[in-house]
Amino acid sequence: MHYVEGDVAALDFPDSSFDGVRCERVLQHVTDPDRAIAELVRVTRPGGRVCLIDTDWESMAVDGLPEELVAALKGHLYNQVLCHPSMGRTLRRRLVRAGATEIEATPVTCCFADPGATTSVLPMFDARISAATGMIPDGIRGEWFAAVDTAAARNEFLATLTIWVATGRRSYTPSHAAEESL
Ligand SMILES: C[S@@+](CC[C@H](N)C(=O)[O-])C[C@H]1O[C@@H](n2cnc3c(N)ncnc32)[C@H](O)[C@@H]1O
Q1: What is the pLDDT of residues 16-45, one digit of tens each?
Q2: CATH fold for domain 18-169
Q3: Which position among 29, 34, 161, 181 has the lowest Cβ density within 10 Å, counted as fewest Cβ atoms?
Q4: Domain limits of the chain?
């Protein structure tokens, strides 16, 4: 395995460098996700597979906490923290526009009835989350985690989130198709 750091929207690899590419939970953070997808397609060989995985934060559903508190957190997340909160559901369309073929898009919904189990997917329910992440507004942090604790103590906590997996193939250009038919 060889690790290289770089910007997904400006990959330092020649065209057709890889048989397949996989990009997980990155596109939601980038300024121009379509440019990044174009780069991922560019470095994939014609006929190779592109796999994009991303969260759809706007799908997040919560029960057991006061509705106004959940609304305050969602408003903060969607408007202040996340660059593209509905990225997951857009992956299929973005692959279509990038010219991919054999596109499939699958929603995977995670369901948690224990806030202690949410950490890797929904860190805003974990009291150990650093204030530096900015995920919880400072003004409601105490109230938020008190409500999470209360819901958990009553066994009334529930949170779901849908993550999308979209796959496709880089289409063959006429020249590559001609090469393959030889
Ligand atoms: C939620 S993490 C996902 C990390 C990993 N892909 C995974 O699934 O565990 C988001 C990652 O996106 C990276 N990232 C954000 N903007 C990026 C960009 N323009 N180019 C490359 N990576 C970027 C961040 O550095 C961070 O590691």
Answers
A1: 999 999 999 999 999 999 999 999 999 999
A2: Rossmann fold (3.40.50)
A3: 181
A4: 18-169
